[in-house]
Amino acid sequence: MNASLDSTIDWARVRADFPLLARKVHGKPLIYFDSANTGQKPEPVIAAVDDFYRHHNANVSRAVHALGTEATDAYEGARNKLARFVNVRGDELVLCSGTTFALNLVAYSWALPRLQPGDAIVLTRMEHHANIVPWQLVAQRTGATIKVAELDERGELDLDRLYALLTPDVKLLSLTHVSNVLGTVNPVREICREARKRGIVSVVDGSQAAPHRALDIASIGCDFYAFTGHKMSGPTGTGALWARREHLAAMPPFIGGGEMIKEVRFEGTVFNDPPHKFEAGTPNIAGFIGLGAAVDYLSALGMHNIEAREQALLAHATEELSKVEGVRIFGEAREKAAVISFLVEGAHAHDLATLLDLEGVAIRSGHHCAHPLMHHFGVAATCRASLAFYNTHDEVEAFVAALRKVRKLLA
Ligand code: PLP
C-alpha cells in the first residue's frame, strides 16, 4: 500500500457526514472502532434510502407504471455504479444480500454439481466462517476434501506451502483478499495466477478489501469475487458476486422464483439471462440504491485517499497500542489493512471490550467468525479495533488512554 494522501481533503468535514458518529454512548463521545464488522453510513446514503421510500417506492422489473420504471432504473443504475467501482461489467455482477450469500452461490451452483470424491478444495487458515462452512457442506455432499494453507509468524500466507498444496486433485481455491482478524492483505493477483496456471478455479472473498482500497477485480484474474455492501458505507443486506461470464452461463440457478425466469410452464422453465438468473424474488431495492450512493460517496473521496488516511491511522494506533504494557498484537503482515487484533495480558477479551464500551469505545471481542485462526494462535478470543477513514487521530489517543485505564481496573 503506497497511496499518498490528498492534503486538501478536510477529514473533519468528512466525519461530519456520518450523523451517528456525533452521538454519545454511556455519556461519552462515541469512538467507533468496529468498522470491519459493519461500516457507518454517511448522510447521502441515508438520504438515498429515504428518498426512495418517500418518492419512488415500487417493485423492480415488473410494473410498467412510472414508479416501477423509476425503481427499476435506479436499481439497475446502482448495479452499474457498483460494477464501475470495481471495474467489471454490470451484467457480470450478481446482486445479493452479501458475501455469505455470494459464496454460497458459488458453492451450490458451481462446486456442488462439479466436485466428486478425490477432488480437493484449498482454503486458508485466516478465512471467515462464511468462506469455510459452505465448502464443508459441499465437501460432505460430494466426497471432496478440504486442504488448508497455513500462515507464517507474521500472519501472512506461506506462499511456497500454499503452492505446494495446489496439486492436480485441487479443483477450487477460495481465499480472503484481506483478513478480518489480522488485516493481512493477501497477494491475490499472484495467487490466482498460480491457481489458473494449474487449471484451478479461484474465489476471492473481498469483504474487507472493497471498503478500503481501489479494487480492480478484472485485473486480479480470479474466477469469482464476493463482497458485501454494509462494510463499504452501504446498507445492510446488500452485496455482490462477480463471476466470469462463462461460469455464469454454465451455472444452474441457486434459488428459483420470480424475476429469474423468461417463461414458466409446468413442463419446464426457461431461465432469464445472467445475472438475473441468480436473483430470484424481490431484491433489497432501497438497499442497493443506498449502496449506489455509498459508491458515489467513496469515489468522490477517492479510494486512494481513503487507503492513505486509514494507513496513517493504522500506523498511529499500532505505535500507541504497542506502548501499552502487556499488549500482544496478532498479525504483523507487511501489507496490512486498518485492523488490529490484540489481547492484554491477564485480561479477558470480553471484559476489556465491555469496560471500553463504558468509556464510549466500540471495539469487537470474540472469535470474529474465525475459529480456525483462533486455534492457530491458541486463544479463544481477541479484541479487535478496526478503523475507517472517518476515525481520527484524537480517537486513537483516546482509545489508548481508555485501554490503559481499563487495564488497571482488570489487573
Ligand atoms: N468474509 C469476511 C472476511 C468478513 O469479514 C465477513 C463479515 O464480517 C464476511 C465474509 C461475511 O459477510 P456478510 O456477513 O456481510 O455476508
Task: Tell me the number of structural domains.
Answer: 2
Shape: globular
Structural class based on helices, strands and sheet pairing = alpha/beta
Low-confidence blocks of residues? none
Distance between the termini: 38 Å
The CATH superfamily of the largest domain is Type I PLP-dependent aspartate aminotransferase-like (Major domain)
Largest sheet: 7 strands, mixed
- Spatial strand arrangement across the major sheet: 4-10-9-8-7-5-6
Describe this structure in words.
Helix content is 39%, strand content 17%. The chain has 411 residues and is an alpha/beta fold. The protein folds into two domains: 11-32 and 302-410, Aspartate Aminotransferase, domain 1, CATH 3.90.1150.10; 46-299, Type I PLP-dependent aspartate aminotransferase-like (Major domain) (Aspartate Aminotransferase, domain 2, 3-Layer(aba) Sandwich). Strand 13 and strand 14 (339-344) form a beta hairpin. The protein is globular. It binds pyridoxal-5'-phosphate. The site of pyridoxal-5'-phosphate has 12 residues, from helix 4.
Features:
411 residues, alpha/beta, Aspartate Aminotransferase, domain 1, Aspartate Aminotransferase, domain 2, 2 domains, 14 helices, globular, binds pyridoxal-5'-phosphate
Summarize the structure.
This protein has helices spanning about 10-15, 45-55, 65-85, 100-110, 135-140, 160-165, 190-195, 215-220, 245-250, 285-300, 305-320, 350-360, 370-375, 395-410, and strands spanning about 25, 30, 30, 95, 120-125, 145-150, 170-175, 200-205, 225-230, 240-245, 260-265, 270, 325-330, 340-345, 360, 365, 380-385.
